[in-house]
């Protein structure tokens, strides 16, 4: 995967974001965004997540999951299995590469009006891994997000 690896914060790191990252950790951020997403998707919650923000938050969650412990790797593993199904077998469709699947996921996310909220979030999570499997230039947003999370919070 081309995402930045989680690196420990340097002694004496400055900035509230890095201090926050040092006190929460990569698994902690994954847990926090998961709880936020569940609360935001659950009916009757005070947290409301706009439809356009769901896949974006799922994408951020997927990025955080890639740096957290193995328990958070399930969306990535499901996406890799999905990728392998299409890219490693001759199904009579010609050559299908990871970039095509990444673009298909993005089209499904933004092309259909009435996806269930949980599916928008999950597809956002899947898109992170699929873009990483595709590599450059499709993975540029993922690498930018990883760098931003690393810079702001010390995770990414």
Reconstruct the topology from this structure.
Blueprint: H1 16-24, H2 26-41, H3 53-67, H4 74-87, H5 98-111, H6 117-134, H7 140-153
Helix pairs in contact: 2-3, 3-6, 4-6, 5-6
Keywords:
globular, mainly alpha, 156 residues, single chain
Summarize the helix and strand pattern as letters: HHHHHHH
Shape: globular
Poorly predicted parts: 1-13
For the record, the count of structural domains works out to 1
Instruction: Estimate percent helicity.
Output: 55-70%
**How does the helix and strand content classify structurally?**
mainly alpha
What is the residue-mean pLDDT, rounded to a whole number? 82
* Main sheet specs: none
How many E strands?
A: 0
Assembly status? single chain
- The fraction of residues assigned to DSSP E strands is under 5%
Separate helix tally: 7
Distance between the termini: 13 Å
Rg computed from alpha carbons, rounded to a whole number of angstroms:
16 Å
How does this structure look, described?
This protein is mainly alpha-helical and 156 residues long. It has one domain. The chain contains seven helices and no strands. The protein has helices at 16-24, 26-41, 53-67, 74-87, 98-111, 117-134, 140-153. Helix 2 (26-41) runs antiparallel to helix 3, helix 3 crosses helix 6 (117-134) and helix 5 (98-111) packs antiparallel against helix 6 (117-134). The longest helix has 18 residues, at 117-134. The protein is globular. It starts with 15 loop residues before the first helix and ends with a helix.
């Amino acid at each position: 995967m081309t995402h930045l690896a989680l690196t420990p914060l340097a002694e004496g790191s400055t900035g509230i974001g890095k201090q926050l990252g040092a006190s929460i950790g990569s698994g902690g951020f994954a847990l926090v965004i998961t709880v936020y997403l569940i609360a935001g998707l659950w009916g009757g919650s005070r947290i409301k997540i706009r439809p356009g923000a769901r896949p974006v938050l799922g994408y951020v969650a997927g990025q955080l999951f890639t740096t957290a412990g193995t328990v958070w790797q399930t969306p990535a593993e499901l996406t890799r299995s999905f990728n392998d199904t299409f890219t490693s077998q001759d199904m009579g469709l010609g050559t299908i590469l990871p970039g095509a699947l990444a673009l298909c996921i993005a089209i499904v996310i933004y092309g259909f009006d009435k996806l269930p909220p949980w599916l928008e979030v999950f597809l956002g999570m899947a898109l992170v891994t699929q873009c990483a499997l595709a590599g450059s230039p499709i993975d540029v947003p993922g690498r930018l997000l990883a760098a931003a999370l690393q810079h702001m919070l010390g995770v990414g």
